[in-house]
Amino acid sequence: MNENLCAFGLGTELLISLSTAQKLGSRFQVRQLGSFILAGKRIPVVACEVLSIEGTEAVPGWAQTFQQALNCWNAGDFDSASKMFRLTIEQRQGHDGPSEFYLAELRRMGPRLDLAGAWDGTVRVGKADSAAAETGLMRK
User: Fold this and answer.
1) Is 5 within 8 Å of 15 (Cβ atoms)?
2) What percent of the chain has pLDDT over 90?
3) Which of 24, 75, 93, 105 has the fewest CB atoms within 10 Å of its CB?
4) Domain map of the chain by residue range?
5) DSSP per residue over 62-110, as a string?
6) 13-30: b or e for each residue (b if 16 or more CB lie within 10 Å)?
7) How high does pLDDT run on average in the chain?
């Protein structure tokens, strides 16, 4: 999973799935990055970034802000999501790979997004025939 998602601009050092994070318990502090369908797969996986080992530190404020942004994204509230992703970047002194990824998705979507179908926020991550990366948003 790490190679597929890191190659598409999440800008993180270590990714694990939510199921792996749950197996590790409180030994690792993680932040959920969203639901993704990886190249060649049909079932979404929830990606998590490992923030610290031992998980004894308090959850950083910026991670809480990111979670709020992700909740807005999943709910289809893109204006609020954009504001919260930008705030996360600000709280991290100008850089947060996952927030930048979602802001790029929002720019790519532009006004074309039609939420007439059910929206769950899942992002499809795949490779085009030309070996260039492509993403596509999923509906339920």
Assistant:
1) yes
2) 54
3) 93
4) 2-139
5) HHHHHHHHHHHHHHT-HHHHHHHHHHHHHHTTT--HHHHHHHHHHHHHG
6) eebbeeeebeeeeeebbb
7) 83
